[in-house]
Task: inverse folding
């Protein structure tokens, strides 16, 4: 079919929006269309059987197509299902954003009320999860280790979750996971500080209920300044998804074997734990505490430039400009500090950012503050212990992981199984132990 004025090829892709690959060993070439910003590997595999494109950390590889989140690293753009993160942070709520990520559209008022009801009535965890898992950990267990293990343990309480082909069954597990993450997280914290477990309160909103499970002591009901619960809601919105990051990729890879969603989410949680990923917010606070004063900033920056450690909370695989989330979090910090008083580490963080943004080492490498640089200052001011910071990342990110898990299944994805470039030794015969030198 020819459209007026433009020759078309490959189902409507204009000629020229393609690449040509030539195998110089044979002189054969193939033209591959560029579709949605990528070229399909199955095309070049026909020309180059057994020749793999080497991309060890997937920095230049699209592992999937997705309609959930859009990033533009150069322009600092982040959109969930087409909605700019700035608008969602200002006008939406985390539960509404979770619905948007999972269902693809903002909910109607009726849908939103039903969604909130479903989440609210699934916040409880089985008593054995608390008594035999959470309370079975060592007294100083890190809450991320407790959370990761408890999520995996939930797979044994809901064996029907293995039926990943049934959309209604998938949705039941999605609702359970979104609802129970705060309860597991708060339960891990309460155990680690020797406080009694606080059961969910179905009469308050999602984030206030989490704060209640975290901090309520003897008062019959928990109350907090609405500016704090709103700040937490905004932080949950900002952390809800971020396309094919390390932990989401883990969720998709494990889910592609058709493992149950609890096992896939536990894998994602384990990936998030790393200091290069979700563990960075905890690492930032420890870094700022270690720097301790203005006087030490220049020496610290020089140590980073000398390769002795990294400026945690800076840099990003995709964003080569200011992480749009960091801008919003920085503003939210001032709102929180109006209630809690300023976190004394803020001045060090601001001076560190100013110094780095004016230093050629960071400018040349396009290193800017990311989502983790300021978030910990808010969490600490709100009373969360540093060990809980990555847990606070995992709570909302489970909505993103689940939306990608569901999309991967709906795409009928094959099991993830990359290839390798073998660089080991050639075949050789076994040598008996007494003949070995
Ligand atoms: C998150 O992927 C996502 O979307 C993640 C996330 C999400 O929402 O899911 O956005 C959340 O994980 C944010 C990132 C949190 N991590 C940190 O803040 C840890 C510190 N940052 C880095 O270690 C690093 O920037 C990464 C891990 C975030 C990105 O690493 P890349 O893309 O693999 O970059 P790289 O390690 O190849 O670094 C390129 C250069 C190197 O220098 P040279 O070897 O070229 O001389 O930049 C340097 C690095 O040494 N560099 C840093 C640095 N980050 C990169 N130098 C000092 N401090 C840093 N933070």
Result:
């Amino acid at each position: 079919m020819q459209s007026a004025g433009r020759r078309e090829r490959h189902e409507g892709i204009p000629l020229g929006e393609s690449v040509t690959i030539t195998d110089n060993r044979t002189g054969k070439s193939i033209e591959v269309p560029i579709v949605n910003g990528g070229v399909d590997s199955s095309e070049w595999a026909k020309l180059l059987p057994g020749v793999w494109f080497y991309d060890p950390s997937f920095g230049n590889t699209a592992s999937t197509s997705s309609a959930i989140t859009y990033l533009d690293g150069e322009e600092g753009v982040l959109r969930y299902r087409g909605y700019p993160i700035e608008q969602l942070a200002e006008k939406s709520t985390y539960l509404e954003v979770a619905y948007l990520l999972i269902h693809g559209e903002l909910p109607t008022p009726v849908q939103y009320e039903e969604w909130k009801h479903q989440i609210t009535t699934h916040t409880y965890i089985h008593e054995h999860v608390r008594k035999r898992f959470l309370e079975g950990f060592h007294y100083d267990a890190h809450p991320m280790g407790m959370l990761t293990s408890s999520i995996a343990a939930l797979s044994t309480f809901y064996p029907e979750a293995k039926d990943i082909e049934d959309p209604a069954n998938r949705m039941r597990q999605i609702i359970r996971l979104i609802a129970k993450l705060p309860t597991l997280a708060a339960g891990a914290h309460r155990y680690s500080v020797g406080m009694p477990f606080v059961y969910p309160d179905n009469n308050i909103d999602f984030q206030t209920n989490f704060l209640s499970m975290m901090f309520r002591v003897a008062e019959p009901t928990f109350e907090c300044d609405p500016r704090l619960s709103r700040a937490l809601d905004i932080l949950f919105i900002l952390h809800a998804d971020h396309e094919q990051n390390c932990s989401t990729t883990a969720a998709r890879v494990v889910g592609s074997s058709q493992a149950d969603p609890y096992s896939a989410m536990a894998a994602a949680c384990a990936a998030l734990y790393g200091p290069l990923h979700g563990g960075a917010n905890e690492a930032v606070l420890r870094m700022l505490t270690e720097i301790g004063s203005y006087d030490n900033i220049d020496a610290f920056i020089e140590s980073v430039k000398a390769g002795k450690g990294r400026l945690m909370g800076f840099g990003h695989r995709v964003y080569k400009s200011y992480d749009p989330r960091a801008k919003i979090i920085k503003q939210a910090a001032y709102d929180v500090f109006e209630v809690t008083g300023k976190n004394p580490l803020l001045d060090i963080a601001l001076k560190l950012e100013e110094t780095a943004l004016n230093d050629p080492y960071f400018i040349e490498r396009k290193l800017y503050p990311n989502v983790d640089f300021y978030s910990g200052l808010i969490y600490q001011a709100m009373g969360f212990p540093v060990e809980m910071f990555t847990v606070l990342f995992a709570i909302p990110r489970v909505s993103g992981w689940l939306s990608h898990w569901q999309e991967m299944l709906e795409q009928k994805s094959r099991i993830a199984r990359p290839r390798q470039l073998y660089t080991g030794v050639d075949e050789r015969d076994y040598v008996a132990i007494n003949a070995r030198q």
User: Anything to note?
Assistant: The radius of gyration is 24 Å.
